Amino acid sequence: MKLDAATSAGDIPEGLLEPALTVGKVTPGSLDDQVLAFPETKPPRRWYIALAITLTAALIGVVSIGYTFYLGIGAWGNTSPVFWAFDIINFVFWVGIGHAGTLISAILFLFRKRWRNAIARFAEAMTIFAVICAVIFPLIHVGRPWLAYWLFPYPNQRALWTNFRSPLLWDVFAVNTYFSVSLMFWYLGLIPDIASMRDRTTSKLRKLLYTVLAMGWRGAAAHWQHYEKAYLLLAGLATGLVLSVHSVVSFDFATSVVPGWHMTIFPPYFVAGAIFAGFAMVVMVLVVVRETMELKNLITDRHLDVMNKVILAMSCIMGYSYLMEGFTAWYSMNEYLHHGFMNIITGTYGWAGWVTISCNILIPQILWFKKARASYFWMILVAIGVTIGMWFERFVIIVISLHQDFLPSAWRIYKPTIVDFGVLLGTFGIFFTLVLLFARVLPVIATTEVKAILPDAQPSHHGDDHHA
Amino acid sequence: MPEITSASGTGAMPETAFAAEGAPMSDRSFSVLGVFETPDALMKAIPKVRAAKLGTVEAYTPYAIHGIEEALGLRKSPLGGMVLVMGIIGALTALGFQYWISAIDYPIITGGKGAGSWEAFIPIMFEVTVLFATFTAGLGMLHLLNKLPFFGHPVLSSKSIKGITRDRYVLAVEAEDEAFDSAGAAMALRAAGAIEVEALPAPDRSPFLTSDNILRALGGIFVACLVAGLAMYFATKWFPLLKPMANMQDQPRLNAQKPSSFFKDGHGMQQPVAGTVARGHLPTATGTQDEAASLVNPLPRTKEVFALGKKVYTNRCEVCHGAVGTGVGSLTAAYGAKPANLQAQQFLDYPDGKIYWAVVNGKNAMPSHAPYLSEQERWAVVHYVRALQRAQNAKDEDLKVATR
Questions:
Q1: Residue A463 burial class via C-beta count within 10 angstroms: exposed 0-12, middle 13-18, buried 19 and up
Q2: Measured between CB atoms, which of A177, A187, A219 is closest to B61?
Q3: Do the domain assignments include residue A455?
Q4: CB contact at 8 A, A146 and A272
Q5: A393 in any annotated domain
Q6: A244/B156 Cβ within 8 A
Q7: Cβ atoms A95, A175 nearer than 8 A
Q8: How many contacts, defined by CB atoms under 8 Å, are there between A and B?
Q9: Which B residues, 100 through 139, put their C-beta within 8 Å of a C-beta on chain A?
Q10: CB < 8 Å to B72, chain A
Q11: Distance of CA A254 to the CA centre of its chain
C-alpha cells in the first residue's frame, strides 16, 4: 500500500518500529503457494463435517422461516406490548457483527495499521455474511415479505410515498448502502488476488470462474495507481459509513419515547457495541482458521494480541456506557427512567441484565493480562462470552424496555417460541456456511496487500523525493 | 508467436547477438515485455528504458509499487475529483428527492414538523452521498479509468502473466504507431537488466467484450429502467384505472344494492334452514303453565349454581320483584304495575316447573326472558327464587343447617 511506506525505517525511532508482520521467511511466491493453493486442494473430512452441521442449522432456519410465512408472525412470541423481540434483537446483533470487518478494512487502513492487511479479507467477508443474516430479519418481520419492496420510495399506483422522517426508512437506506459499499470494498480488494488465482489454477472450471471475476486484471502500473486511489477513497467513505450505520440503527430506538430508549448516548454506545461484538466474532473465527488452515506465520500471535486489546478497550467503553445509562436514569429524576433502569438489574428479566454485564464487562477484564491475550482458552472464552453478552444486551434494550411501558395494564412477560430460536439458529447456520464456502473458494488472506508489506517489497532508493 | 528469451540476466547483449537468435519480429508487434526479479531492478530500469523513447513504457506488477507512477510519468489519478463531484450530486439528489416527495408531491406532517423541514433528511442524504461516491470510486476506477473488464489485452495471454500476478515485475514497451521497433525495445529492456524478454503480437481482431461495450449495455439498461419507471409513474397517475398490480383490489364480495354472485337467488344473506336451532337455545317448554308443572330442575344445588342464579335474578328480576322477591322493586312505582310477590303462599306452593314456565314465557305484564337467558341460567334462577323463599320463611332447623 502506498500509504504504508510512510513508515520507512529512517524517520521512526527504534522503539516505535513495528515488529515484523509475518513469522519466518515469507516471499511473494511462497505466500501464493500457501494461501492461493488452498482453494485448489481437496477439502478435508472435518470441513465436510463442519459444513454438514452448519447446513443443518441453516435448514432449521429455513424451515422456521417457512413456518413463519405459512402461519404469520403469530408463530413467534411477539405480542403486545413487546412487538419487537427476537427479530429486531437478531437484526441489531448481526449488523453489529459486520462492523468489525469495516473497522479493520477501512479505519485501520486510514490509521496505517499494517497488521490489518493479513486479517482484513476475512473480516470483510464476515461483514458481508453478517449483513446478509441481518437483512433477513426486517424482511420477515414485515409480515408479508413479498411486499417488502414497499419500503423503497418508488412511483406506484397508490400515489403514496415513504415517510422520510421515519428512522425505520433511514435504516432501509443505511443497511442497503452498507451492504453495497461493503460488497464493493470486498470485491475490489479481491480482484488482484483473483487474478493471481486465475493465472495459477489448472482446473478449467476455476479458470473460467476466476477469469470472469478478475475482469481481466493485469497489474498495470497505471491501473494500480487508480486502484490505490480508489481503495483509499473507499476506506474514507466506509469509515464514515460504518459510524453512521449503527447510529441509524440506534435512531430506531433513540427517536422514540420509550423509557430506556430515548437517550442521546445511544448512537456512540451502539457503534462501540457493534465493534466489540464484531471483534469477538473475528477472533473466534480467525483462531479456527489459523489453526485449521495453518496460517500461523501470517496471522501471528501479535494479531491476536492486538485484536484482544481492541476487545478490552471496547469492553471498557461498554462499561462506561452502562454506567452512563444508570447515571442518566438517576440524574433525570424521571420515575419512568428509574423504573426502566431498575428493571434491568432487578426486574423479571434481571438475569438477562446480569448476563450482559458479566459477559461484556467483567469477563473481558482478564485480557489485561498478556498471558490471557496469548491463550486460546481465554480469548475464545472471552469471545464467546462477548457474543452471548452482546446478544443479551440487545435483548435487555428491546424486551425489558418494551415489556413494561407507560401503561401498566398493558404490561406482559415476553416468552419466545421455538420458532424464534429456530430462526436465530438458522442465521448462525447461514453465516458459518458462507464462511466455510468462502474459505474454500476465495483467498482468505489478501495476498496482494500482504505482498506489498513484506520486507524488500518496496524499492529502497526512491524515498528521498517521494514522501516529503 | 514471435518470442525472444535469454538465459543471461546481464542484459549487456550486443545487437548482433540479439539478431543472431533469429527471431523475426512481426511488423505489427503490440509490445515487448521485460521481466525483472525485484522491484529495485524494475525501478532502476524504468528511466533507462524511457530514455530510449521507443514507445509507451508501462509496468506490470503483482502489487502497487511506491513511486512507480512518478518514474513512469503517469498522470495523477483524477478519481478524487470525480468522487467529490458525484458525492455532492448524491447529496443534492437525496435532498431534492426527499424534499419533492415530502413537501411537494405528498406533503405530510409528521411529529408536528412542517412538510418541508429538511433536518430529518440528513441521514438519508449522508447514505446516498456515500453510495454515489462509493460507486464512483469503485466503478469509476474499474470501468472509466482502467477500462475493465477487458479480457482481450495481449498481456493476459502472454507467458509472463503468471509471474506478473505472482512475484515478477514486468516492464513493457508498447507500440504507439505502426513504426514500432520491437527489436530495439527488446534490446533496451535487456540492456536495462531484464532477465527475460517476450514480444507480444498485436491482437488480430478487436475484442467484443470491452469495458466500453459493457458500459454501453449498462447505460442502455439504466435508460430503459428510467423510461419504464417514468412511464409507469405517469401512466398510473393519468390513467388511474390501469392496475398493474391489483393485489387485493378485486374480491368476490357482496356489494350494497347489488345481487350476490354466490347464491342462486341473488341474496347475500340466506335464511337458515327450517327447524334450525341456535347453539345453546334448544326449544323450551311451551304449552300451558300447568303442563310445565311436572318439569324437574336438572341443576344441582351448588354454590356455583346459586351464584349464577343470583346474578341472573339481580340483572333481570330484581328491578320488579325486589331484592328478596316481595314484589317491591325499584321500578314498581314508576311502572305502575303490580309484580307478583314471590313470597306469597301461592308461589311458595308452586312447583319448580311453573316458575320455570313463567321465566320462559312471561306472565301477565312480565315479558318472556327466554331470549336473554340460557337453559342453565333459567333453572339457576329458579333455584335462587326457591332460596329466597326459604330464607324469608326460615324455620329453626334451617338456622341449624345454616350455622352448622
A1: middle
A2: A219
A3: no
A4: no
A5: yes
A6: no
A7: yes
A8: 239
A9: 101-102, 105-106, 108, 110-111, 113, 120-121, 123-124, 126-128, 130-131, 133-135, 137-138
A10: 221-222
A11: 22
Provide the pLDDT for residue A222.
92
Helix axes B122-139, B79-99, angle to 10 degrees: 150
**Gap between the Cα atoms of A230 and A188, Å rounded:** 9
Q: Count, in order, helices (H) and strands (E) of chain A.
A: 18, 0
A27 domain-assigned: no
Comparing alpha-carbon positions, the chain A residue that sits nearest to B68 is A221
Is residue B114 within 8 Å of A166, Cβ to Cβ?
no
Q: How far is A191 from chain B (nearest CA, A)?
A: 10
In this structure, what CATH number is given to the domain that contains residue A355?
1.20.1630.10
Q: Which residue in A27, A167, A217 is closest to B167 by CB distance? A: A27
Determine whether the interchain pair B233/A456 forms a contact, defined as Cβ–Cβ distance below 8 Å.
no
Rounded-to-integer distance, Cα A137 and Cα B298, Å: 58
pLDDT (tens place) for every residue of chain A, 468 residues total: 444 444 444 555 555 556 678 888 888 999 999 898 888 888 999 999 999 999 999 999 999 999 998 888 999 999 989 999 999 999 999 999 999 888 888 989 998 888 888 899 999 999 999 999 999 999 999 888 888 889 999 887 777 899 899 999 999 999 999 999 999 999 999 999 999 999 999 888 889 999 999 999 999 999 999 999 999 999 999 999 999 999 999 999 999 988 889 989 999 999 999 999 999 999 999 999 999 988 999 999 999 999 999 999 999 999 999 999 999 999 999 999 999 999 999 989 999 999 999 999 999 999 999 999 999 999 999 999 999 999 999 999 999 999 998 888 999 999 999 999 999 999 999 999 999 999 988 999 999 999 998 888 888 754 444 443
> Cβ contacts (< 8 Å) between A153 and chain B: which residues?
97, 101
In a domain, A6, yes or no: no
Spatial distance between the Cα atoms of B263 and A140, rounded to a whole number of angstroms? 39
In A154-173, the residues whose Cβ lies within 8 Å of chain B are 154-157, 159-167, 169-170, 173
Single out the residue of A5, A29, A217, A453 nearest to residue B37, CA to CA. Answer: A29
DSSP code per residue over B135-166: HHHHHIIIIIIS--S----GGGGSTTHHHHTT
Q: Does A270 touch chain B (CB under 8 A)?
A: no
Q: What is the pTM of this model?
A: 0.76
Sign for the pseudo-dihedral over CA of B77, B80, B85, B91: positive
Q: What would the DSSP string read from start to end of A152-178? A: S----TT-----TT-HHHHHHHHHHHH
DSSP lists the bridge partners of residue B197 as B34
Tell me whether B65 touches chain A (CB under 8 Å).
yes
- How big is the CA angle at A149 (ends A144 and A152), to the nearest 5 degrees? 135
In the chain, the amino acid numbered B136 is T
HEC assignment per residue over A260-328: CCCCCCHHHHHHHHHHHHHHHHHHHHHHHHHHHCCCCCCCCHHHHHHHHHHHHHHHHHHHHHHHHHHHH
pLDDT tens digits, residue range B319-336? 889 888 888 888 876 777
* Domain ranges, residue A377: 52-144+163-448
- Between β-strands B196-201 and B56-60, what pairing exists: parallel, antiparallel or unpaired? unpaired
Q: How many domains does chain A have?
A: 1
- C-alpha–C-alpha distance, residues A235 and A212, integer Å: 25
Task: Tell me, yes or no, if A25 comes closer than 8 A to chain B by beta carbon.
Answer: no
Chain B interface includes A11 (CB < 8 A)? no
Task: Kindly report the nearest CA distance between residue B120 and chain A, in angstroms.
Answer: 5
Q: Which of A4, A185, A210, A227 to mutate to probe the B interface, most B CBs <10 Å?
A: A227
Q: What is the three-class DSSP state of B66? A: coil
CA gap A380, A375 in Å, rounded: 8
How far A157 CA sits from the closest chain B CA (Å)? 5
Residue holding cell 384505472?
A: B241
